[in-house]
């Protein structure tokens, strides 16, 4: 079908980025012991990333002895020095990069799912563009979602001023409205270095896992351009959504394949050490799987830092599978059941 043909086309394009006479591929691992979130003992549910300095662990690093003004340096300054020393010492095929991955604030689709209950949402309401009062196709942020993003904006302001964190050098976002708006609210008005202003690049493959839900269908490029004038589009970004297909869903293996492709694309074109990604719960879960990070679910408006070691290895990487999109069952009327036991729409009335 159409969507999967296009996907294999893009995979081929992404792998030619790394192709040469000697094939190479990128392999990712997480450097653990840096953030509480990378420790399997940390409870992800209700984790307070704002109250815990982004989860940064208070510790010494082997490079502390050479850290400038080390008696006054903050934990974030000593971490920056550590990452820089890892990058200086590493062989040419290795690099260390700190990713900040943020989930969008609450969108109208999140509020609607809570309102209707998951079975009625999945099997009926989510396939519509909205109801008489609310639109959830390419959902915008609710007031709650806007407040969540502004809270993270205050947090970044404090991290920059008091904790002397190194802010992102480059910014990427999903093309869905809720992420674009979250990124804008989060990073506007900060005291950012002149050489790395907030000019996000929109990447198709940072979008949410594609389901039959209209909240996974993106708007046109012209509409995005009109609403987010300072944002840039990756090369080849199409005017209309090439992937979302009514009543079909992207298999999880395809999603992990395109998460790997988008990371490979970023890591082979961007030399930044500090990178921000604005995305979704399902997509960040997929990126974490590709990076080899433990499962760590994010609530709306939450973010997670991950120190990544990327290694360029010889030979072709493991092949990525591209399965056909799976048809989705729906109900002709919303099922009355509220608990999530009905996740295959077998409870249609
Ligand atoms: C590749 O990454 C995986 C997990 O992310 C890791 O277990 C493995 O050791 C890495 N391989 C090499 C050769 O670096
Ligand atoms: C994790 O925290 C949640 C509340 O935030 C709690 O309900 C749950 O029992 C905790 N899990 C563990 C394993 O401690
Ligand atoms: C880490 O250190 C800071 C100040 O240096 C302190 O305020 C904070 O409570 C410490 N956190 C933990 C978890 O020990
Ligand atoms: C539309 O859905 C929202 C849930 O997000 C709900 O609050 C609202 O009452 C619904 N409107 C109508 C007319 O049913």
From TrEMBL:
Q: Where is the signal peptide?
A: 1-19
Keyword terms: Signal
Q: Tell me the Pfam families matching this sequence.
A: His_Phos_1
One Gene Ontology term of the molecular function aspect: phosphatase activity
Q: Which InterPro entries match?
A: His_Pase_superF_clade-1 (IPR013078), His_PPase_superfam (IPR029033), PGM_Phosphatase (IPR050275)
Q: Which GO terms describe its cellular component?
A: cytoplasm
Q: What is the protein name for this chain?
A: Histidine phosphatase superfamily
């Amino acid at each position: 079908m159409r969507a999967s043909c296009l996907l294999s086309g893009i995979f081929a394009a992404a792998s030619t980025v790394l192709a040469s006479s000697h094939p190479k591929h990128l392999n990712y691992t997480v450097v653990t012991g840096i953030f509480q979130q990378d420790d399997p003992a940390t409870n992800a549910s209700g984790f307070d990333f704002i109250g815990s300095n982004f989860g940064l662990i208070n510790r010494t690093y082997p490079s502390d002895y050479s850290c400038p003004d080390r008696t006054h340096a903050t934990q974030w300054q000593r971490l920056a020095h550590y990452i820089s020393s890892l990058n200086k010492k590493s062989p040419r095929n290795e690099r260390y990069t700190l990713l900040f991955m943020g989930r969008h604030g609450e969108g109208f689709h999140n509020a609607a799912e809570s309102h209707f209950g998951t079975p009625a949402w999945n099997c009926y309401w989510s396939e519509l563009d909205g109801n008489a009062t609310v639109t959830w196709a390419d959902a915008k942020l609710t007031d709650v979602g806007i407040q969540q993003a502004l809270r993270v904006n205050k947090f970044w302001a404090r991290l920059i001023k008091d904790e002397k964190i190194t802010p992102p050098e480059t910014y990427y976002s999903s093309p869905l409205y809720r992420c674009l708006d979250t990124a804008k609210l989060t990073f506007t008005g900060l005291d950012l270095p002149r050489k790395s202003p907030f000019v996000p690049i929109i990447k198709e493959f940072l979008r949410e896992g594609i389901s039959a839900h209209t909240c996974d269908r993106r708007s046109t490029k012209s509409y995005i351009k009109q609403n987010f004038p300072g944002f840039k589009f990756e090369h080849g970004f199409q005017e209309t959504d090439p992937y979302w297909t009514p009543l079909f869903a992207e298999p999880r293996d395809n999603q992990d394949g395109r998460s790997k492709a988008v990371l490979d694309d970023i890591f082979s074109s961007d030399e930044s050490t500090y990178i921000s990604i604005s995305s979704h719960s399902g997509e960040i879960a997929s990126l974490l799987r590709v990076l080899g990070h433990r499962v760590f679910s994010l609530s709306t408006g939450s973010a997670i830092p991950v120190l990544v070691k990327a290694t360029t290895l010889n030979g072709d990487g493991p092949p990525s599978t591209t399965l056909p999109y799976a048809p989705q069952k729906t109900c002709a009327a919303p099922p009355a059941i509220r608990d999530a036991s009905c996740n295959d729409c077998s409870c249609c009335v």
